[in-house]
Design a protein that fits this description.
By secondary structure, this protein is of the alpha/beta class. It has one domain: Alpha-Beta Complex (DHBP synthase). It contains six helices and eight strands, in the order αββαβαβαβαβαββ. The protein has an eight-stranded mixed beta sheet, with helices on both faces. The mean pLDDT is about 95. InterPro entries: DHBP_synth_RibB-like_a/b_dom, Sua5-like_dom, TC-AMP_synthase, TC-AMP_synthase_SUA5. Keywords: ATP-binding, Cytoplasm, Nucleotide-binding, Nucleotidyltransferase, Transferase, tRNA processing. It is an enzyme of class 2 (transferase).
Length: about 180
């Protein structure tokens, strides 16, 4: 954990297990690290990235204030495989939200990913560990082979989900994925 913390605080990236694949991540407030993630993935800057957390306290500062009723509604889905687009706060780097005014956030139900967020005391950027348009990587070994020393790969086992999380626009209720 110390190595992961040091890598993240230095603006680096980590690969870690999530619900359906390994995720590639960094600190959500670190604009330079976010640009590194986008470059490693060869992902267009305008798309934005997902942020995962162990609990709501780790994401509150990243979204504009929501009412108690709105948080209660979200609590019915979390922790779970549901990513919601919520209005981004001014603290969110533009590279993280892409061309959008919203930020994609999820309280993960994956035990290892949640434990990682808890141990680090922070939410994490979470995008599939792969180059854009290629298959998501499913093992730590595959991540080490793909990214080498550029990314600190943590050991772990992915969850049983076959598909990535469902993405829902919270304002409209529209399912986007």
């Amino acid at each position: 954990m110390q190595q992961a913390r040091a890598r993240l605080q230095a603006g680096g990236m980590i690969a870690y297990s999530t619900e359906s694949c390994f995720g590639l991540g960094c600190l959500p407030e670190d604009a330079r690290a976010i640009r590194r993630v986008l470059a490693v993935k060869a992902r267009p800057n305008h798309k934005g990235l997902i942020v995962i957390a162990a609990d709501v306290s780790q994401i509150r500062h990243l979204v504009k204030p929501l009412s108690p009723a709105q948080w209660a509604e979200l609590a019915g889905y979390w922790p779970g495989p549901y990513t919601f687009l919520l209005p981004a706060s001014h603290k969110v780097p533009p590279a993280l939200r892409g061309r959008h005014a919203q930020l994609a956030v999820r309280i993960t139900a994956h035990g290892e990913a949640a434990a990682l967020c808890r141990a680090l005391g922070t939410a994490l950027v979470s995008t599939s560990a792969n180059r854009a348009g290629q298959r998501s990587l499913k093992t730590a070994r595959a991540c080490r082979q793909a990214f080498g020393e550029r990314v600190l790969t943590l050991p772990g086992r992915i969850g049983k989900r076959r598909k990535p999380s469902t993405i829902i626009d919270f304002a409209s209720g529209r399912v986007l994925r």
